[in-house]
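Closing statement on the adenosine-5'-triphosphate sub-project.
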Amino acid sequence: MTQGLYPTFRVLLVDDEPAWLRSLSMTLEGPGAITNLLPCSDSREVMGILAREEVGLVLLDLTMPHLSGEELLGRIVEEHPEVAVIIVSGLNQIETAVRCMRAGAFDYFVKTVEEDRLLDGVRRAIRMLELQRENREMRRRFLYDRLEHPEAFAGIVTHNKAMRTIFQYVESVARSSQPLLITGESGVGKELVARAVHALSRRRGAMVSVNVAGLDDSVFADTLFGHTRGAFTGADTARGGMIEQAGEGTLFLDEIGDLSLSSQVKLLRLLQEGEYFPLGSDKPKQMRARVVVATHQDLAAKQAGRQFRKDLYYRLRTHHVHLPPLRERKDDLALLLEHFLQEAADELDKKKPTIPKELPVLLATYHFPGNVRELKAMVYDAMSVHTSKILSMQPFLSAMERHGELPSGASSAAAAQGNVFAEAEQLPTLAEANEQLVAEAMERAAGNQTIAARLLGISQPALSKRLKHARNSE
Ligand SMILES: Nc1ncnc2c1ncn2[C@@H]1O[C@H](COP(=O)(O)OP(=O)(O)OP(=O)(O)O)[C@@H](O)[C@H]1O
């Protein structure tokens, strides 16, 4: 099912005056872009509608024939506590407002209130209801450890537990209209997750991606908002921006951590007001797309250093997904290796070679600063020069050495664990410790000296010398 309606639940408008219902609908649909409306002019029908339809919010008049608004409010609160009620009444009486709020109304407006304030109140209620629903949904998914739409994640190869938990969270928030922030190091799969979010959102429009790094403020505004004819020198024709292209879909802003401070103000206003002005135009346009942003930067640190606006930061991280780097999910290495090898073999029209059993061990010693993208590039490189039946480890070793990285294996693991001798009653001698360490590294490297040397943080010839020395002294 596709849907272009917002919010996902129905908003029931109850008033005995059809003219008021029409004008309220126009306000909500027009400037408010709140489109999932259900008008009702007979108070007697309200409880039946609530039993039948998936209503989340009711905008309720107070003075009506048959059943009064206050009476209805009491029944709704009792029988449908998950439904929020906003009173929109002709009565400007403090006592009535207080009574309604005490009885459980979410908010109270008089009909003469300015349109903007009413819309703000309705948006606030929708946001609260969406968050409540997401919470319920998340609890349910985590409790049953279930993915409802695993097909949406088919492009993300993993069997890591942390990634699965992230997928469950993504399923719970994918249909929200609130922004989603995706963080994680470069090449970790942020764009893939954004695509999964879009697929799960069931939104009608497209997913439009914009890399905002390096865009100066006017290019940013032009890219997103578009312009009218003659808006600036060279604007010979009017052009819609990316927001328009996304329609009711997803606007994906990549590298958001690099957005200039002046563009941050524009983005904040867009998110707060849901509308924008194409350059050269004084007529606002509604944004109907959902905003998803990604960055490899630490936005919290940037915010603390005043390079990123605090208000925008909090707005963007209403929902937040952080993807762990590849070195923290080494259980995915073998699976990804297989996957990219098959993919590269198909693309290069070669037979998939056998993977030497030492290769995953070697890869596990590496830090992968470029994450999955780097692994993919390594595999494609290796496949492009590969000729024999067994995949050569040399291109992988060369790629790691090009990064000039010293082994991340034994030394960093020990450092992470603190003092490895802390538990030992008696210290081994230096010679014993040396011998045990070398034996353990050779064991972990499945007998491969190059890998064992990387694990120990020494060169392969140095390890070979130690092994020879150990053998001679036996
Ligand atoms: N789990 C995965 N399974 C399969 N391919 C993956 C996976 N993670 C990443 N990739 C591949 O790695 C490359 C980088 O992924 P992606 O562009 O999503 O990363 P990113 O985090 O958005 O990177 P950047 O911060 O540089 O924009 C892509 O080719 C993507 O297909």
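The chain is about 45% helix and 10% strand. With this model delivered, the sub-project is considered complete and its resources will be redirected to Aim 3.
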